[in-house]
């Protein structure tokens, strides 16, 4: 010891022979932290299935009818409500025609989904905001706030995002969902959603 200061001692662990083993505790701590970091993502993936992480607009990882029906219903409401806005606000005939098709196709899909799920079909003339996923509700509110020349592009952007998410949700459930009528519906609906996505991609690339 010099200058009244003591040198910090290394961590010490007493081994089976009662002899101190320096640095072992630090190594054990490092190993424990590494193991925790490695396990955390696995636990997150396991516990998120059909939980908060699965209950999102994307919906990948959904494996139960109840959660799929909730998300798919919300997706249909978003498509219909946003397209009703476009039908009234868009200036382009092409965008208006696309919006009319989205209203018709997604109303039919919503009714069919309710049928196979054994639930009442949503009344599209009623306020259905309470049946929307939080992200879908945010997307619709953002579009409602857009007016003027920027509306059409905002609508097209929303439709592209919504159909990307819908295709992912329906494809995932068609592969991983519970066997039965709802899963069959998801599989049968994928081609229509993919067609919608192609149409909106073509619109977004149009001059």
UniProtKB/TrEMBL annotation:
Domain DUF4142 positions: 64-203
UniProt KW Signal keyword: yes
Keyword Transmembrane helix set for record: no
Signal peptide start-end: 1-44
Keywords recorded for this protein, A-Z: Signal
InterPro entries given in the database record: DUF4142, Ferritin-like
Protein's UniProt name: DUF305 domain-containing protein
Organism field: Paragemmobacter aquarius
Classification lineage: Bacteria, Pseudomonadati, Pseudomonadota, Alphaproteobacteria, Rhodobacterales
């Amino acid at each position: 010891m010099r200058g009244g200061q003591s040198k910090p001692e290394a961590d010490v662990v007493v081994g089976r022979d009662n002899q101190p083993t320096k640095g072992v505790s630090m190594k054990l701590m490092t190993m424990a932290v590494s193991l925790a970091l490695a396990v955390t993502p696995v636990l997150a993936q396991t516990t998120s299935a059909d939980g908060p992480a699965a209950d999102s607009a994307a919906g990948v990882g959904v494996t139960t009818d109840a959660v799929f029906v909730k998300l798919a219903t919300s997706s249909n409401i978003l498509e219909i409500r946003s397209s009703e806005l476009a039908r009234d606000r868009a200036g382009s005939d092409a965008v208006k025609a696309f919006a009319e098709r989205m209203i018709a196709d997604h109303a039919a899909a919503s009714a069919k989904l309710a049928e196979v799920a054994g639930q009442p079909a949503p009344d599209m003339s009623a306020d259905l905001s309470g049946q929307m996923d939080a992200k879908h509700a945010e997307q619709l509110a953002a579009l409602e706030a857009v007016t003027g020349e920027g509306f059409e592009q905002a609508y097209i952007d929303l439709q592209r995002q919504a159909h990307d998410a819908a295709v992912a949700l329906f494809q995932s459930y068609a592969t991983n969902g519970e066997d039965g009528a709802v899963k069959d519906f998801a599989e049968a609906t994928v081609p229509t959603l993919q067609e919608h996505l192609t149409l909106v991609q073509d619109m977004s690339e149009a001059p």
